[in-house]
Specification:
259 residues; alpha/beta; 7 strands
């Protein structure tokens, strides 16, 4: 992880699960970022208590209110982050916030399909649009022409459940709306990598593994990967990403996941 040197990072869905794990690991790094922005829907609520506790001990942690399906909330979050950064840009945007509805193919609904897609796919699109000026500013202020997460990057938290080539977990959980939303997020990542390369912004999709979170445990079975192991692994992967990795789909150990 020593290679990941970022001045500023924003993690969405940061009050629990993988998002909270990433925030913890970022704060514990020997070269911790100057700013760690942890975004969640209700920063003062009970579900953000652990995040509040971390913020009381780490002055470089700033909790940002954010509803990823609300354009006004996204705009306000970008403005608030910009104020904290002053004249500098944002190095790393991790679009982690996501939801799942435990529906089968037969009982999937318009409402659930729309809500999951809005959160898991449209949210990362709108957030990346809103934070692009800050990402571009970070890229312009970094030496060298190559792409890296230390310079400027958008990382979209995907899932092997969104892999069209892999039937992983179908017998355990069909979650059709979730799978479709992550497959679409993968295409969004590819589009972003093509559109934002000229701005010096690396874009990649990450599968965090089958992790011991509320979502990961919804199958009724114990997931094999701990939150801390997943977060550590992903940050190690991020430290190694370069020009050749933009537009790719990797897992928490750096292995390529089939589209």
């Amino acid at each position: 992880m020593a290679g990941l040197r970022v001045c500023s990072v924003l993690v969405t869905g940061a009050n629990r699960g993988i998002g909270l794990g990433l925030v913890r690991q970022l704060l514990e790094m020997p070269n911790s970022p100057k700013w760690v922005f942890a975004a969640c829907r209700d920063p003062k609520g009970q579900r953000a208590q652990e995040l509040q506790n971390l913020a009381s001990r780490h002055p470089n942690l700033v909790i940002i209110p954010l509803e990823v399906t609300d354009p006004a909330s996204i705009k306000a979050a970008a403005a608030r982050v910009g104020e904290h950064l002053g004249g500098s840009g944002l190095n790393l945007l991790i679009n982690n916030a996501g939801i799942v509805k435990l529906n089968s193919l037969d009982n999937e609904t318009l409402e659930d399909m729309s809500q999951v897609y809005s959160t898991n796919t449209v949210g990362p699109l709108l957030l990346s649009q809103a934070f692009l000026p800050l990402l571009k500013k970070a890229a312009q202020g970094s030496p060298g022409s190559g792409l890296s997460c230390s310079k400027a990057a958008i990382i979209n938290m995907s899932s092997c459940g969104g892999s069209i080539a892999s039937p992983f977990g179908w017998d355990l959980m069909q979650v059709v709306s979730y799978r479709c939303s992550k497959a679409a997020l993968n295409m969004l990542t590819k589009c972003q990598s093509l559109g934002y390369r000229e701005h010096g912004v690396l874009c990649a999709a990450l599968h965090p593994g089958w992790v011991q979170t509320d979502m990961g445990s919804s199958t009724g079975r114990t997931a094999p990967v701990t939150v801390d192991a997943s977060a550590r692994g992903m940050l190690k992967v991020l430290s190694s990403l370069s020009e050749k990795d933009t537009g790719t789909f990797l897992d928490w150990e750096g292995k390529v996941v089939p589209w």
